[in-house]
Specification:
- By secondary structure, this protein is an alpha+beta fold.
- The chain has helices at 3-6, 14-60, 67-78, 109-115, 152-203, 217-253, 272-278, 291-303, 341-380, 386-415, 425-443, 460-477, 508-511, 523-528, 535-545; strands at residues 81-86, 91-94, 120-125, 132-137, 144-151, 257-261, 267-270, 307-313, 318-326, 333-339, 421-424, 446-451, 455-458, 483-491, 494-501, 549-555, 559-567.
- Strand 14 and strand 15 (494-501) form a beta hairpin.
- Helix 10 packs parallel to helix 15.
- The longest helix is centred in the first third of the chain and has 52 residues, at 152-203.
- The two termini are 72 Å apart.
- The structure holds adenosine-5'-diphosphate (ADP).
- Adenosine-5'-diphosphate (ADP) is lined by residues 469, 473-474, 477, 501, 503-506, 514, 519-522, 526, 531-537, 560.
């Protein structure tokens, strides 16, 4: 901080007031001195005239002898000191002292003047008396100088009184001048102070404050102009704040990461999505990762056209698509970063699904075509094997039918959000178990069910499809003599469907993947037993759309346990 800023600020009136007071004081003192001087001069003139008159009277009564008596007599009459001096300066008589012991007075200024023919006047402290005296000496009469003197002290009493009056009046005048000046300054400065207060109020944002009206036209105009400027500015600021607030809101809401770089590669703005996608946003381009993002910004600035780059970032790796867009007219660059990991994953899933579905469809279709050709040949030769080929066609057609049905189920499940209604899971499962009883019996498998009430919010059709798939799997994978058990009930506030079989089980390495679409432990076997590879994918989908889960525990050669859990409707 500079000393200028630290200097104490005084309110405006103090300085002129202090200067004014000093000037008034100087003026008063000078005036008092001048008045005093002239008064003193007038007083001395009067005194001299009196002393001269007395000296003249005394001179007239002077005779040749009895000088000392004369001096004493005149002195008593005039209340003055009278001295008689001859042309040589010798004191012949003195009313107050013995002339014999008095020194020669020839060197006294008043005596010198008198001896030169003029009335001599002087003021000094008397050597003889030690008191300040005013001396008046007349030009010599018959060679003798008559000098009359009086003490200034006693006679100055009047003058001193007058002087006291002068001092008091001067002080009063000085005080009046200061007070008057203070009032004047206050009157002049007040409107400026009011204006300053008004400006401060405006600066603090109190824009509805009315401008102070002033009788001084310029100040009045200044107040109005200040208010107008502040209100105009305030309006613009509100608009600007609203615009920037809107922009901030929009950029904050969009899922794309947005970073703005200035011409010096500094980050001017980054929205929350950018921080979320990149983990953090540095202050400058040089620290931005992944590196491809930096390159895209630089290339866009150099080329003047948008640059798109893909990059992997973080762990687990996420796939980012960065688009750097250069500003027209300056070197700023806007970088938009999109996390496309999920989109790419879904794209890959869709591609896989189409490839798998095509492959699954192709096998029965190829069998049907081949069997049809074989039938034609067999029929032309009247060969009884035609019946066998017809049966192959039927099997493949049924496989196709199952596949198409499962695909339709899956696609419906993906597209529709089912209406979840209050129902009892045990009732749906019971109905489906009933449908499988005959097949179980035909397969030589015991199918038992223990069903307790399990109220949930669900879709009857979807839950039935999921149960069907689980039962179908259990029966397909459980050899003759085995057992399939179905339990439904409420456990830990969840409606639970448990399907246990004593079948072949699932190898440990495959357990985690059986719910994937088209995943099979043994494709050829699955197909020949009527599997589509979609059954468990449908089960998982149904469980998830009901807010639940599905899991499996299995041991190769001993059997599997599938558990579906759905939130219980209290
Ligand atoms: P699929 O129609 O081939 O049965 P799923 O999706 O229903 O297809 O099942 C996927 C794979 O999981 C099956 O190929 C099968 O190997 C295995 N699997 C499913 N249920 C059982 C079960 N109860 N016991 C043994 N393996 C099973």
């Amino acid at each position: 901080m500079s000393s200028r800023n630290e200097r104490k600020r005084r309110p405006l009136p103090t300085i002129p007031l202090v200067i004014g007071a000093l000037l008034a004081l100087i003026l008063v003192v000078v005036t008092a001195i001048l008045v005093d001087r002239s008064l003193r001069a007038v007083w001395l003139d009067d005194l001299d005239a009196d002393l001269e008159r007395l000296a003249l009277v005394a001179a007239e009564t002077l005779d040749a002898t009895g000088h000392q008596e004369w001096a004493t007599g005149v002195s008593r009459a005039g209340a003055v000191r009278v001295t008689l001096i001859d042309a040589g300066g010798v004191v012949l008589a003195d009313s107050h002292q013995d002339p014999a012991i008095m020194e020669n007075h020839g060197d006294r200024p008043e005596v010198i003047s008198a001896l030169s023919g003029e009335v001599g006047v002087a003021t000094r402290v008397s050597v003889s008396t030690g008191i300040e005296q005013r001396y008046v000496a007349l030009p010599p009469v018959d060679g003798l100088v008559v000098r009359v003197s009086t003490s200034t002290g006693s006679i100055a009493e009047d003058y001193r009184r007058t002087q006291g009056v002068i001092v008091r009046v001067s002080l009063l005048v000085a005080l009046a001048a200061v007070v008057g000046m203070a009032l004047l300054v206050r009157r002049l400065v007040r409107p400026v102070a009011v204006l300053a207060d008004h400006a401060q109020a405006l600066a603090r944002g109190r824009l509805d404050t009315d401008p102070p009206r002033s009788p001084v036209a310029e100040l009045d105009r200044l107040g109005m102009a200040l208010t107008e400027i502040a209100r105009d500015l305030g309006g613009r600021m509100v608009e600007a704040e609203r615009a920037s607030g809107t922009l901030e809101f929009v950029l904050g809401a969009i899922p794309q990461g947005t970073i703005l770089f200035d011409s010096e590669d500094r980050v001017v703005y980054a929205n929350p999505a950018a921080r979320q996608i990149l983990g953090s946003v540095p202050e400058a381009l040089g620290a931005l990762t992944p590196f491809q993002l930096q390159t895209s910004v630089r290339e866009a600035r150099e080329g003047g056209v948008p640059v798109v780059r893909m990059a992997d970032h973080g762990r687990p790796a996420r796939r980012l698509r960065a688009t750097a867009v250069p500003f027209e007219g300056d070197d700023r660059v806007l970088l938009v970063v999109v996390d496309v990991t999920e989109r790419e994953r879904l794209d890959a899933m869709r591609r896989d699904f189409v490839a798998n579905a095509s492959h699954e469809l192709k096998t029965p279709v190829a069998t049907i075509i081949a069997a049809s050709e074989a039938i034609q040949i067999a029929l032309s030769r009247d060969d009884p094997s035609a019946v066998g080929f017809a049966s192959q066609i039927e099997t493949s057609a049924r496989q196709l039918d199952r596949l198409v049905n499962d695909l339709l189920d899956l696609s419906r499940l993906e597209q529709e959000t089912p209406d979840l209604l209050p129902l009892d899971l045990s009732q749906i499962v019971g109905e489906e178990v009933g449908r499988f009883l005959k097949r179980a019996k035909d397969n030589g498998v015991t199918l038992v069910a223990d069903l307790s009430k399990a109220p949930i919010l669900g879709s009857r059709r979807d839950l039935a499809a999921a149960t069907r798939n689980l039962l179908d799997n259990a029966l397909r994978h459980t050899p003759r003599g085995g057992e399939v058990r179905v339990d439904v009930g409420v456990l830990d506030d969840q409606a639970v469907l448990i399907l246990t079989d004593t079948g072949e089980g699932i190898p440990t390495r495959d357990v985690g993947r059986v719910f994937e679409r088209f995943y099979r432990v043994d494709s050829a076997r699955s197909r020949t037993t009527g599997g589509t590879g979609l059954g468990l994918a449908i089960v998982r989908h149904v469980a998830e759309t009901h807010g639940g889960t599905v899991g499996v525990e299995s041991e190769l050669g001993r059997g599997s346990v599938f558990t579906v859990k759905i939130p219980h409707r209290g």
